[in-house]
Each structure stands twice: as C-alpha cells, then as structure tokens.
Amino acid sequence: MSIVYLDNNATTPLDPRVLDAMLPYLRDKFGNAASRSHAFGWEAENAVEQAREQVAALIGASAKEIIFTSGATESDNIAVKGVAHMYHDKGNHIIIQETEHKAVIDPAKYLEQNGFEVTVLGVDKYGMVRMDELAGAIKDNTTLVSIMFANNETGTIQPVAEIGKLCKERGVLFHTDAAQAVGKVPIDVEAMGIDLLSVSGHKMYGPKGIGALYVRRKKPRVRCEPVIHGGGHERGMRSGTLNVPAIVGLGTACALAQAEMPEESKRVTALRDRLWEGLSKNLTEIALNGHPEKRLPTTVNVSFLYVEGESLMMGFNDIAVSSGSACTSASLEPSYVLKALGVGDELAHSSIRFSLGRFTTEADVDYTVKRVSDAVNHLRKMSPLYEMALEGIDITKVQWAHH
Amino acid sequence: MAYSDKVVDHFEHPRNVGTLDKNSANVGTGVVGAPECGDVMKLQIQVDENDRIVDAKFKTFGCGSAIASSSLATEWVKGKTVDEAGQIKNTDIVKELALPPVKIHCSVLAEDAIRAAIRDLRQKQGAPGDKTAVAAK
Ligand SMILES: Cc1ncc(COP(=O)(O)O)c(C=O)c1O
C-alpha cells in the first residue's frame, strides 16, 4: 500500500539533494570543525561556514548571527531562557501567546516557577495575536516578546513585521519561533525587526536533530545565557562539537528552499486551495480552522462536524495526516491550539490537519478529497450527532452526561 | 497506534447501524457520552412479548474503538433476554476486541449504553424496580 503523506508539518522527508550533500561528511570528510591544526578540521569548518551563509541568506541575516543547535526546541529554549536570564537585571517579565509550541510554553512556565513574570496573550478566532493587547502588555520590566511566525496546527501567520516594529519602539527584544515558516514564506529579519528566530531542519526537507537560532548582532547586539555549557562553541551560546553532516544538510536545505520558493510557494498554495475547495464541494458542514488567507501554503486544518477525528483517520488509513482529537494525542486532551481560537472541544475532536509539501502532487490531493469525503459520509451515517442535526436538534443545547 | 483486526472489521463493516422508533413502547433507547469528550453512543433495543431482544441498532460518534464497542454490543444483545443483556460487562468487550488500556473507556461507554437503553425500556413498561441503574461515572 502506498501512503499519501500529508503530515509535512510534523516532519518532512529528506530531500535527496540534501542527502547527497551530506554523505561526504558522513564518510571521508569526518573532521571536527574546531580542529584548527589540520586539513580535516579546515574542511569541516569550511563546510559549516558555507552552511551558516546559506541559513543566513534565507532569512536576511549575516552568517555571524547564526548559531547551530539540535533543533527548534533547543533554539526556543536558548532564546526564551537565555534572554530572560541574561537581561534579568533589566526586568523579569516576558510575553508569549497561547498558541505557541510547547518548546516556548514550557520554558516560559519554567521561568515562571523560578520567579519570572509571564504574560500569556490570547488570540483571535483566526489564531492571530491582537496588537493592542500586545502593546498593552508590554511594561517597563518586559525584556522579551516571543510570538511564533506561523502556527504548526493551523498555519496561521502572525503579523510579524508589526510585532517587530512595536517591540523596537518599546525597547524589548522579539523572538519568533519560525520552525514552520522558514523556507515556506519570505522572511527578512531586518525588515521585520526580528531579534531572535528559531529554525528547524526537519520541517524543511533537512535532517532531524539540527536547527539554528538567529541572534541579532547589531542594533541591538543581543546576548543569551547558554543552556548548554562547555567548550564555548557557537560564540559561547551553544557548546558541543558541531554536527557537521547535519549542518551541511540544513545549509543545503536552506539554499534549495530559497532558490525554489517563488515557484514552489505558488504550486503548494494552489494545491492547498484545491484540497479545501474539493472538500467544500463534496461535503456540507465543514469548517476551516485558522486564518483563511494569512496562512502557510502548506496547511489546511478542517473540522468535519459530527465526525470524530481519530475514526476519520481510520477511514482513510492510506493517507497520513494528524488530528486535534484527544484520542490521538498523548495528553488525551483535544488540541489547546484550536481551543485558544475558540473552536469548541467537540469541533477540536472533529479536526484533521492536512499539511502539504514539496513532494505532494495534484493526484495526491484529488485522491485525498475523494477518500476523505467517502469516509466522512460513511461515518456520518453512523453518527448520532449528525442524525440529531438533521432532526433540527441543536447539539450544543443538549444536556450531555459528562464522563 | 495499531488497531486489532476485530476493531478494524467492526469499523469497516459495522453491524446494526441505524435507528429504531424511539417512541415505540417496545424500544429502549440509551444515549451516553458527550461531544466535548469525543464520544457519544446511541444504542437501541427492541423486545418481543417475552422480553427477548429481537433487534438492536446503534449510532456512535467516537474513535474506531468506540464504534467497534457499540457495534459489538448490538451483536451481543440480540437474541438475549433483557436481563441477560444487562449482564454484559465492559471487560468482555475489552477482551473480545483486544482494546488497549487507553481505549477501555470505549467499552465502559458501550456497557453504559446497554444499561441506559434497558432503563429507558423499563421506564416505558412502567416497571418501578429499576434494577439496571447506570453505574455512576
Ligand atoms: C512551531 C514549532 N516549534 C518548534 C518545534 C520543534 O522543533 P524541533 O523538532 O526541531 O525541536 C516544532 C516542531 O514540532 C514546531 O512546529
């Protein structure tokens, strides 16, 4: 059985061109980039510096501002905890928002337990931060605002440039977790006023276990306390021998994304819209979660009313997607991201995230539209909620026996 | 998470999907669960004059295991007397469908649905002694 892969926000396949670039560094070019005394080291160092240029170029930064990490989780940890600790004398207040990835939420919670003050902003029904609320939340003792570029579940893209401008005006640092956005939408850290930005390799056709953190060096020069202490690699912000093959992979992935973005972005956006339009044509009572336009080209998050997400995924088991339903998550709670948008629990249980990518074809999308429509119809025939809706009963008004 | 073959079979070929006339005197209807929790089961039984279940139908909003549990429940109650049906235990369903621990609540809900249907039937029949009260949750 061949499986259609529409879970690219979870992870992307490695681009074969990335693998080809990496292989020499897993074989003969095994040097330690910190070995200054021989050719093996120089060769590795050159490869790392080229990758640094490639990552920087994709986001409008300079190479010196890029630090390699193990992934966006680590980058988020360095940005949030590292900035909070470094600027502790200036203030102990940071601001995040509700739909952040756990890699930002949990470090913020950790800081809160250790005496920092954390404001968690809500979002509007599309998952967008409200600029007036953000402006009102910034105080004299605020040191950092951390708001993601694009959300992993809904694809909603935040008004990053506006946030950057506001933070500049108010003299606070701005970090953005751009794990889902890098390589998919244009990013310019200068034009957007971003001070720190997290990158993940495996969300953009690079390898897993590699990421980067952009740390601004000029106007202002941003400093972070390290999370990992040691030999002083990466300007002291992230010690540990560099993972040269993975870094080469990340650099190559960035170069490919940059070269192909103008066309690829158009192509994937068309597929995204084809998927949504196909489903809307075939099915009644479905709802798009997230922003209708300001959304990643890859992401379509849909609630199929009266049908539970996990059973739906079982109904098209040759298509890989993910669901906001409780049954599929480790926590047994429906998606906190959808809840933050005001999507009710019952609609969160009915949600499916389709995330498209570089290797998604029109045939994949058409097949998905057909399979999903059939599965929804099959399950609605079995659904007591659908039956009640057809009878004109408002299920939100029913007294359910909670368990 | 992989599903057992039996769960997949009930999911793909659910037995006894449908609706009986809930206003009929010899039909009992049980609706349990809540949409916010991700599962709602409706199970109905129809009895003959000897208190034997001659038909059963279900509709379920829930995961594959919830659908399979209710489908199996309708299969099992058919042909039993109402009292016999009231003896069906969620643990029997767990065993038959090889449900993993995180899905045990699906079987509990199916047992609750059977009992709720029986209670509804008894109420209609005007029997005062309701022996099959739904277990408190
Ligand atoms: C928005 C966002 N931030 C952070 C991460 C974590 O990235 P990584 O797996 O590289 O640590 C992810 C991936 O799940 C993500 O989607």
| CATH class category label of the largest domain in chain A | Alpha Beta
> Over all CA atoms, what is the radius of gyration of chain B?
14 Å
Order of helices and strands of chain A: EHHEHEHEHEHEEEHEEHEEHHEHH
Basic shape of chain A: globular
**Model regions low in confidence, pLDDT < 50 over at least 5 residues of chain B:** 129-137
Pair of chains with the largest interface and how many residues each contributes: A-B, 28 and 31 residues
| Major sheet summary line of chain B | 3 strands, antiparallel
Biggest sheet strand line-up of chain B: 1-2-3
Gap between N and C termini of chain B? 27 Å
| Quaternary structure state of the chains depicted | heterodimer
Main beta sheet of chain A: strand number and arrangement?
Answer: 7 strands, mixed
Domains counted in the coordinates of chain A: how many? Answer: 2
Q: What general form of chain B does the structure show?
A: globular
| Estimated share of beta-strand residues of chain A | 5-15%
Roughly how much helix do the residues of chain A carry, as a percent range? 25-40%
The strands making up the biggest β-sheet of chain A line up spatially as 2-8-7-6-5-3-4
Question: What do the pLDDT scores of chain B average to?
Answer: 90
CATH superfamily of the largest domain in chain A: Type I PLP-dependent aspartate aminotransferase-like (Major domain)
Structural class of chain B: alpha+beta
Q: Helix/strand/pairing class of chain A, anyone? A: alpha/beta
Task: Report on the architecture of this protein.
The complex is a heterodimer of chains A (403) and B (137). Chain A has 403 residues and is of the alpha/beta class. In chain A, the strands form three sheets. In chain A, strands 2-8-7-6-5-3-4 form a seven-stranded mixed beta sheet, sandwiched between helices. Chain A is globular, with a radius of gyration of 22 Å. The model of chain A has no long low-confidence stretch (mean pLDDT 95). The longest helix of chain A has 39 residues, at 244-282. Chain A has twelve helices and 13 strands. Chain B is an alpha+beta fold and 137 residues long. Helices cover 41% and strands 19% of the residues of chain B. Chain B is built from five helices and three strands; from the N terminus they run H-E-E-E-H-H-H-H. Chain B has helices at residues 5-12, 64-77, 82-85, 90-97, 104-125, and strands at 27-34, 39-47, 53-61. In chain B, strands 1-2-3 form a three-stranded antiparallel beta sheet. In chain B, strand 1 (27-34) and strand 2 (39-47) form a beta hairpin. The A-B interface holds A 306-308, 310-311, 314-315, 325-327, 332, 334, 344-346, 349, 381-387, 395, 400-403 and B 3, 8, 11, 14, 17, 19, 31-42, 58-64, 66-67, 102, 105, 109, 137. Bound molecules: pyridoxal-5'-phosphate (PLP). Pyridoxal-5'-phosphate (PLP) binds at residues 71-73, 101, 103, 148, 152, 177, 179-180, 200, 211 of chain A. The site of pyridoxal-5'-phosphate has 12 residues of chain A, from helix 3.
